[in-house]
Input
Amino acid sequence: MSAIIEEHHHDDHHHGPAKGLMRWVFTTNHKDIGTLYLWFSFMMFLLGGTFALVIRAELFQPGLQLVAPEFFNQMTTMHGLIMVFGAVMPAFVGLANWLIPMMIGAPDMALPRMNNYSFWILPFAFTMLASTLLMEGGGPNFGWTFYAPLSTTYAPPSVTYFIFAVHLMGISSIMGSINVVVTILNLRAPGMTLMQMPLFVWTWLITAYLLIAVMPVLAGVVTMMLMDIHFGTSFFNAAGGGDPVLFQHVFWFFGHPEVYIMILPAFGIVSAIIPTFARKRLFGYASMVYATSSIAFLSFIVWGHHMFTVGMPLAGELYFMYATMLIAVPTGVKVFNWIATMWQGSMTFETPMLFAIAFVVLFTIGGLSGLMLSIAPADFQYQDTYFVVAHFHYVLVPGSIFSIMAAVYYWLPKWTGHMYDEKLGKTHFWLSFIGVNVTFFPQHFIGLAGMPRRIPDYALQFADYNMISSVGAFLFGFSQLLFLVIVIKCIKTGKQATAQVWEGAHGLEWTVPSPAPYHTFSTPDEVNLKEAHG
Amino acid sequence: MANDATYQNYYVPADSKLPIFASLGLFLTVFGMGNMFNEMTAGADTTFGTMVLLLGGVVLATTLFVWFSKVIEESHAKLYSDQMNRSYVWGMSWFIFSEVMFFAAFFGALFYVRAFVVPWLAGEGNRGPSDMLWPNYVAEWPMLNTPDPTLFPGAHTAMGWWGLPLINTILLVTSSVTVTIAHHGLNEGNRKKLITWLGLTVALGIVFLGCQVLEYYHAYTDLGLTLNAGIYGTTFFMLTGFHGAHVTLGTFMLLVMLIRAIKGHFKADDCFGFEAAAWYWHFVDVVWLGLFLFVYILGS
Amino acid sequence: MEKAKQSRWLVALSLLLSSSMVYADWTVNMRQGVTAISREIYELHMLIFWVCVVIGVLVFGVMIISMLLHRKSVGAVSADFHDNTTVEILWTVIPVIILLAMAVPATTTLNKMYDPGEAAIDIEVRGLQWKWQYTYLNNDPTKEVKFVSSLLTPREEILNETRKREHYLLDVDNELVIPVNTRVRFLVTSGDTLHAWWVPDFAVKRDAIPGFIHQAWAEVEKTGIYRGQCAELCGKDHGFMPIVVRVVEQGEYETWLAGKQEEGRLVYETVGKEWTQDELMAKGEEVYLRVCAACHQANGQGLPPAFPSLVGQGLAVGPMAAHLDIVLNGKAGTSMQSFKGQLNAAEIAAVVIYERNAWGNNMGDSIQPREVNKMMSTGQ
Ligand code: HEA
Ligand code: HEA
Ligand code: CUA
Ligand SMILES: [Cu+2]
Output
């Protein structure tokens, strides 16, 4: 017994990280774990992006040239899955790990060992998922929404591994979210009330709540699939009294909140960056909190808008249409608040600000096309076309992904102690901005003109815009290698960053030196709320 | 150098080998299970998958055992402040919430099938024309005649609520009471009371599980109620089965608490492990009441 | 101030530019279509589109103005406000009103789409991997017309070996034919996985769900040929199952239907006659290349492991009963579906005989279509 206590009192780990590779494997430090998440996410982004480039290369021209239809479907599926579960979600968890303890004056996450556990499940899960591509019969080929019965009766055998990979991701997300919720509720520095927390913390609190509520439902639906495939149950088979549409209801009960899980933390990030570079306090803090909560609440009751064409009763269609339209209101409040924050500010346009502004503009475009989709009769013409693909890429790529990049530029000096190369950063921004629009704007048109999604080949009238879109995709994709260069360069060298880094930055994380020491706020008296609020 | 005051406020555990082994164990478990299921369905040899599954199970169980022992030791060593303990309380509550949502998915499936799918298949409502595909199907719940009895031969009798299910309800409700009495014993510092009533709770849990095994046996042999019996059998076994799995886990947790109580681990103000297990037990009990109502009483 | 004027000017210009695009014959917009519903949806689409454009212009306009005026480099000093209940209420209430204004026409249109009026013609539309099967329902089963419609575009065009012609990927062998100005009801279902039957010009999109039937209807106002595609991922060839509907005058429709019914009767008779082995082989080859070669390939080698080879192994050189059984009833859980709904007895007999005797599978055995027909009618 005493030996164990001895080990805990052995305090060198309270000063600096352990040496060597094992530091990363055994670490319980929120900053290390945050870093792990972020690098993992970036690797997944490149992998998922590579799959997207395979898709875009095949769609460069009509006709089948590079890949067979079976493989194309696997690419579409894996691209969606890896981007959603491997790139965006872990990136936000990484940011949460790095920032939440520093923002609320906590020494670490509440449950540090479990924190490490949440992360290390992921590499196993994604290795298993990616390895299905090499299995006999190929990997998952039924879309990231894996509708039954294509994903049950007609699925390749690798679907079993897909199911278990989803289980692993779910376990990881649930544990990660419990950690976030507990940290926020229990480890705030004395004196920090809920309504004083930075918005990033607020949005993550709500996101974590969404995750804990819906990841088990996802686990439930994949379990039903597993039983249908291997144990003769009939959840999704009408012959036994089940219904394939049941799958869609359960899936989208998870799936719609899931898309807000991918955007709420982004709202938090933008709400931190815009005030800093406008040198003006965030407009309407309280209404931001209420708007985020309303979006989260509404997200549970609108899932049917993905199913307008499956033949729901009229009352269902109307209800889901109205409920979905309502989401525009709190989201609009957020957009207006950001603009009011910019209004009469004293703005400068460093890279994080550029990404944040592009976020507001392009997310709004994506949101407005979302509003069009929510009009049920019109959705009969949009559903499963590239119009939908354009919609969700506008909210996800220049939405979630841009916000993550903005966050990285914004906090990188705090993490590494160096300023990144501003010129390169701006170049990266402009290449990305142009690339993203060239890729996804034309998809609105081909969608309206009638091109279905998830097809490896298309009719001739869609050729021109597809070609433009593919060119844009390669431009955007390869620009991301520049991002990698910038980050590595910033870790290695660069101008020494000050503690506050940005002239207009406020918040606890800017009161500690840059780079942030391995352990921050180990004692409550290190927390200086006054200074933080400047 | 960190001083003791630091520890009182915040305790950050040292680097730990536990999580990576737990991840590895979890991975081997699911990978082995996946392999086993696939081979089973293909009618091939399942040895490899089973071995990996067992290996994973052993790694996972051992790691978790060491992990929990370590937490208990740390707690005994007074490394945790009140604030730290609150973290565990919050953590457990949110975990139980996630479990509630897991069951919600299956209950949701049951309600959807009963309220919508059954009438549609029999020709009512906006998907009513579906009955053209199933001319012989008549709506009923429990669904004994499935739309396609050659693929999914329905049960010939439904599972009633009288008998074993009722006994099980009484057992579980009683066990919720006994665990509460044990808790009182703990609060009063009455170890004997704690051990007696906790022991009784564990026993009730085990008897419950025994009854459930009997019930399943009865379903398969006498009623023709199987996993393959269409959506009635599907929802019946999935809901009660997952509940049973949770009872197993809960019983195991209580058993561990019983052993710890016998070892003299708990004090009135230091008993979170016990409380967590008790909450879990209440949760399992509440789910059962839902099952009893919706699967048994309204389902037969 | 100078800058503010400039930006207002920009806004006006962009408005002008975008509005000029609607007047041009803009082929990249939603189609107006040829039914009352489709036109209504088009109007609705344009309405929300313009509402969104206006919102976008306002929101981005304010942003741009702010970015131009309130930047540090032009000496802007930041103000100190961070709350204003009045504007916050305003920008909550105004969107609600806009949404209400959009919800009204949307509800009206949706109501019309769900109107359960009486249809003159009922057609069952069945999605199959990867083709459509149409059945003109008729109370007299001998008058029921049933046929399968699949992609006509040749492989060479898809594989870029020859030039792609007009209607690439949008041509089928057997078009669906319906009369103009008549309400037609589609009963959409599926024989395997999900599909969706979508004809943009009718604004009809209905998911095809195995085990369930969903209704949709259309009353087309203009004769012509209308094309659509499967709109729900259904496996490998999801991109290759187009829909073509030919809308004709009532009289032409009736002639066509009578012709189809006669064709059905002829098939019915051919099944009864005595077939020679050569006739069976010739017919079999034709059926094989049309239906089976998509998976099992023209040379019978298949694409293992997805699609087994039929040459020198397995059921094709095993007992005939099992061979017939898999073709008639398919194999559950694989893409080898039941063909008894799609092929008539003569075609099934022929294709089985062909498989047993082609590519060196010299089994030498034979069966008459009428025997297969007996198996089919006794529901084996
Ligand atoms: C980050 C992810 C994200 C976000 C934030 C959103 C946001 C929204 N989405 Fe989107 N959506 C997806 C990701 C996302 N979506 C994905 C991945 C899919 C496809 C899944 C698949 O099938 O694979 C999808 C599909 C999808 C569909 C189904 C389409 C179909 O398959 O037929 C619908 C339909 O209603 C929809 C609607 C909406 C709406 C109304 C919003 C709203 O939240 C948007 C609200 C925002 C605004 C409206 C703009 C700002 C507001 C103002 C400036 C105020 C003034 C405005 C008004 C008064 C109008 N989405
Ligand atoms: C956050 C989520 C996210 C993100 C970031 C993206 C990013 C991109 N997506 Fe996609 N996408 C989805 C989520 C996302 N997507 C989802 C959910 C679907 C639906 C799937 C389904 O239908 O089931 C989808 C579907 C989808 C389609 C439709 C496919 C179909 O229907 O068949 C297309 C087509 O153009 C596409 C394109 C792209 C492109 C070009 C990018 C670009 O942004 C990608 C940028 C590229 C890179 C980042 C690559 C960088 C890599 C290199 C330069 C190589 C370097 C190599 C090494 C170092 C080894 N995506
Ligand atoms: Cu049929 Cu897609
Ligand atoms: Cu949604």
